[in-house]
Design a protein that fits this description.
The structure is a homodimer.
Chain A (H helix, E strand, L loop, with lengths): L3 E3 L10 H10 L10 H18 L6 E5 L2 H12 L3 E6 L2 H12 L3 E6 L19 E5 L1 E2 L4 E2 L2 H10 L4 E5 L16 E5 L11 E5 L1 H10 L11 H8 L10 H17 L1 H21 L3 E3 L11 E6 L4 H9 L3 E5 L8 E5 L6 H11 L3
Parallel strand pairs in A: 1-13, 3-4, 3-5, 5-8, 8-9
Antiparallel strand pairs in A: 2-10, 6-7, 9-10, 11-12, 12-14, 13-14
Helix pairs in contact in A: 1-8, 2-8, 3-4, 9-11
InterPro entries (chains A, B): Aminotrans_V_dom, Pser_aminoTfrase, PyrdxlP-dep_Trfase, PyrdxlP-dep_Trfase_major, PyrdxlP-dep_Trfase_small
GO molecular function (chains A, B): alanine-glyoxylate transaminase activity; L-serine-pyruvate transaminase activity; O-phospho-L-serine:2-oxoglutarate aminotransferase activity
Enzyme class (chains A, B): transferase
Chain lengths: ~350, ~350
Amino acid sequence: MAPVYFTPGPAQLYPTVAGHLQTALDKQVFSQSHRSQAFKDLYQRADEGLRALFQLPQDYAIYFTGSATEIWERSLQSLTAQHTFHLVNGSFSKKYLDHAKWLGRQAQVLQKPFGQGFSLAEIQVPTGTELLTITQNETSSGVCMPVGDIHALRSLFPEPLVSVDMVSGAPYAALDFSQVDMAFFSVQKGFGLPAGLGVWLVNERCREVAATLEGQQYTGGHYSIASLHDQYQQFQTPCTPNVLDIYLLTHVVEDMLAKGIDTIRQETEAKAQQVYAFLEESALFAPFVQEKAHRSPTVLVAEVMEKPAAEVISHLKAQGLVVGSGYGAFKEKQIRIANFPAVTEQEIDRLVQAMRPI
Amino acid sequence: MAPVYFTPGPAQLYPTVAGHLQTALDKQVFSQSHRSQAFKDLYQRADEGLRALFQLPQDYAIYFTGSATEIWERSLQSLTAQHTFHLVNGSFSKKYLDHAKWLGRQAQVLQKPFGQGFSLAEIQVPTGTELLTITQNETSSGVCMPVGDIHALRSLFPEPLVSVDMVSGAPYAALDFSQVDMAFFSVQKGFGLPAGLGVWLVNERCREVAATLEGQQYTGGHYSIASLHDQYQQFQTPCTPNVLDIYLLTHVVEDMLAKGIDTIRQETEAKAQQVYAFLEESALFAPFVQEKAHRSPTVLVAEVMEKPAAEVISHLKAQGLVVGSGYGAFKEKQIRIANFPAVTEQEIDRLVQAMRPI
């Protein structure tokens, strides 16, 4: 039996990926020009599927980049001149902040210890902030910010553009896109695709700000919002994109729509609940995130007591169950379990049964 | 019979691609962490194959990006503060220049009309130039610069770093990498892979210049040469890369090495010769590039007399032969024929036989 990957990205492929890939090879999709009508039709179909899946407001546009990492940089270049504010509570939210500093922005931060989330009461976004960055799901620590809290930030702080990194939360996170201005993800997490594509969802308000900065500073060249949007209006991209991933994303999104996003969300929560319940009762494991409201349903981090985490990982791997190691300094003491849509309830059950007797 | 793609990128897939892709799916390569030993081993294997194929000097490093477009930008950010010089004779060499201007560099240019190449005698690179950019093969116009001329520029102008865009010339172009400082390509051209990966070959001299600019200006964030090299030393990448393309590239490079790069070069020249000989004798077609030494062996551009080019393209397409349209303003009057290693001598023969009676 092939191993099951519970790794937080690259992750288990969505079950329909191999079939879609074969169809695309048979149809020679990857030899077609990215300037052809066939590619425009594909982009349009991806656009329609993603709009339906995320219930995007009309004014949103969808751009493709090489990675989510690139979107940290491009969003800062196109949307900010000076003042940014970052909610940082892990390695990936920290990298968004790093990028702002590298670009010379006056980046302010509210930082919480690894494993902790934010309470609304402690967040104070300074007047004059151009961009507020939020990591909806910290892949490193397993902390999420409930979407209700993200929506509340808009009414508390209506001035800044709100950027949501939902790299390891999409498509589970039921974000109300009318309450934020942009969001982004990469496809090797919740969508279960091979890595190499970032997806950037951008509203009209962002485009208006981007237009005012155009000509005032370097906004990202071919990957500025202005350039991306100019191409997007013909369902084109500034340079040759990862057509393979766009093709697979289009089809997997349609598969998810056929299944129903509500079903996917319910299954995600049920699977997460099963794992967290086990971690709480286990003597060997414990949930790393203390605050229940901040425990991610999509990337679950467990502390391993008494044994080195590597031993647990090897033990599970021998049974065909591949979990992720803890991030960075937490490698020795934690494991990470991705609970993406590609992983079934039966597979989560197998994992919990295998963890029980360790 | 499946159509043959003579399009200049995305192009015909290399014949072994489908098999390698199936093997990778079977081995779940695309679910493996990009921080795993398995990925490091893959990167190292790609590195070894590319070194052998290009006969790279020891001091070169090999980095992966999302596209060749990105390398235009990143090379300018990491290697230049002020003065760049660009040889421009088509749309892609022009885009490298555009990027330098967007980044605020004092970019000087020697520009030739579309369809013409450069003679060494007319090139004068100003003193103080930090980076000289050369497009070895202009995908838009079908003009190449003979590698001997590129090598000669180094002795004529030893001061600037020399950057060679070999996007549609690799691996055919027998560039002597000791005579330049960096080169790059994307994989959807001569390597016959799905689009979505740029490959950047960078020598020690570039890294030394990059080190002096680090801290002085924005050098590209995660995609600065310093950051890429830091990761490269452990065969890692700054962010999750297109593992699928890296896997396919590794295996196709090994296939090419097994066949022999000399054989590939000889076949490329024989196929190009066959097409150009036909274009010269044809009443309907003519080679667009007048100067024989500047006629690209990898992207062949033909002028179409008397008929709209679209009619020729349709006629050939009906026979399962897909050629590219002319670039931009030349769409109505030209066709482009990619002569990459994925296209066999038999297929080129079929194309010429089909063009003959039009």
